[in-house]
Amino acid sequence: MSGTGRTDQLRRLSDAILAAQRPIRILKAINWDAAVHERFFRHGAKELPRPEYLPLGFDPADKVKELRDLKRQIRGKNPVEALLREKCDEFVLVTRMLAARGTRRFYEVSRLVFGDPRDRFPDNPADNLAIARLWAARPRARDEDATIAAEEAVRQIHELCAPYLGGKVRVIVRSRLTANAAAGATRVTLKKGAMFTRRQVCALAHHEGLWHVLTSMNGFAQPVLTVLGVGFPRHAESQEGAGIVSEFLTGHITDERYIELGERTIAVDMAARGADYLEVYRYLLSRFQPRKAAQMCERVFRGGVVEGGAPFTKDAAYQRGYCRTFNFLRAALEGRDLDVVRAFLAGKMSVDEAELVRDLVEEGICAGPVHLPAWFDDIDRLNAVITHSVTMNRFSLPSISRYYARRRQRRKVAAPEALLHGDDLEGDAVPPAGEEGDE
């Protein structure tokens, strides 16, 4: 097949996958109506909620058949067509998951799509749940007043995102939303009635607009593989993690954000091991305000079984996604490979597919990103962040902590007179005066 014939075929298959997946909307299918929480609090927060789900808008059996028929048309043995077949399989799984709303089968398929809280990293033996617990145990952030209403946040987010996205992003307010914000292909949606701090507004702009919308727009702008607008297989972990990395790299994340992300994963793990909605709610209530705790519970139990044992597992992917994406950036920049980072920005994909996309850019099958995130503006600063990270990796924090603990202990047992007379208890050399601040 000629080069032109191959690209035409890939474009046709990619467009066919986009058309087939169009009615499959996970969050729309599993989000709860606001009345569910109203009833929950009206009854004293003591009864299990009883969510009802809207019709899917398509027949799951017909959709599975359509996707399988499409997969059979993808006959090539090259890596791209292998990924397109995997994408068809992934949409089959998602369809089956949505068809199983309210049953334990929903959870079984959710684990195949989004993973499990206790999954290990493919590139490191790190424990995902242990990282979630570490995040949850961080010191609480200082109180910041949430004084910005959703309608004003819309204006500010648009103002931050528009210059990077050619003015094409839409930011709107809607009532039916579980989280305070969500992103679509060209749209950021905020929850009506939600209040935000200035830092949260900026974080949402960089996470939802200048990451999720940006990668969608770059993907849909692809000349051949338009499927990158909705993502290659297994993209969700890296895309959600990269959204958090975007908050970090632009300086708009707080420990409160890490705490919430950690607690979400812990809550998913509790539910997976049998805790019902009320048990998870009471656990979260000791850490968050009632409405916030209920909202976080909904994220865990939407689509699943409120009696426990079958949660929605997407929130368990954030730690893995964050760590793997940041380490991908570290490895790429340490290897002076900006092209693979640009490839990662060219659409929705896992970090594992970025090298393939870079090769496809060289072949002319993929295009580089049209839009770049704010953190990519200053490569020197980005490299400095990586230099800081790889430098600090040389030191063991437990060892450093033990060193200062020993110093504190020695000072406690030292004679008070020694402290009064300024004796050097440790025998450390005193640096010459006037030399601090040399560059």
Q: What's the helix and strand layout?
A:
Elements: H1 3-21, H2 26-30, H3 34-42, H4 60-73, H5 79-99, H6 104-114, H7 128-136, E1 148-149, H8 150-161, E2 170-174, E3 181-183, E4 187-191, E5 195-196, H9 198-220, H10 235-249, H11 255-272, H12 277-285, H13 290-301, H14 317-334, H15 338-344, H16 354-363, H17 379-392, H18 397-413, H19 416-420
Parallel strand pairs: 2-4
Antiparallel strand pairs: 1-5, 3-4
Helix pairs in contact: 1-4, 1-5, 4-5, 5-6, 7-11, 8-9, 9-10, 10-14, 11-12, 11-13, 12-13, 14-17, 15-16
Question: How would you describe this protein?
Answer:
It is built from 19 helices and five strands. Residues 425-430 have low confidence and may be disordered. Strands 2-4-3 form a three-stranded mixed β-sheet, covered by helices on one side. Strands 1-5 form a two-stranded antiparallel sheet. It has a domain at 378-410. By secondary structure, the protein is mainly alpha-helical. The longest helix is centred in the middle third of the chain and has 23 residues, at 198-220. It has helices spanning 3-21, 26-30, 34-42, 60-73, 79-99, 104-114, 128-136, 150-161, 198-220, 235-249, 255-272, 277-285, 290-301, 317-334, 338-344, 354-363, 379-392, 397-413, 416-420, and strands at 148-149, 170-174, 181-183, 187-191, 195-196.
Write a short abstract of this structure.
The chain has 439 residues and is mainly α.
Main beta-sheet strand count, sense and barrel state: 3 strands, mixed
Termini separation: 61 Å
- How many β-strand runs? 5
| Helix amount | 55-70%
Biggest β-sheet: strands ordered side by side in the sheet: 2-4-3
| Cα shape | globular
> Multimeric state of these chains?
single chain
SSE string, helices as H and strands as E: HHHHHHHEHEEEEHHHHHHHHHHH
Question: What radius of gyration results from the CA coordinates?
Answer: 25 Å
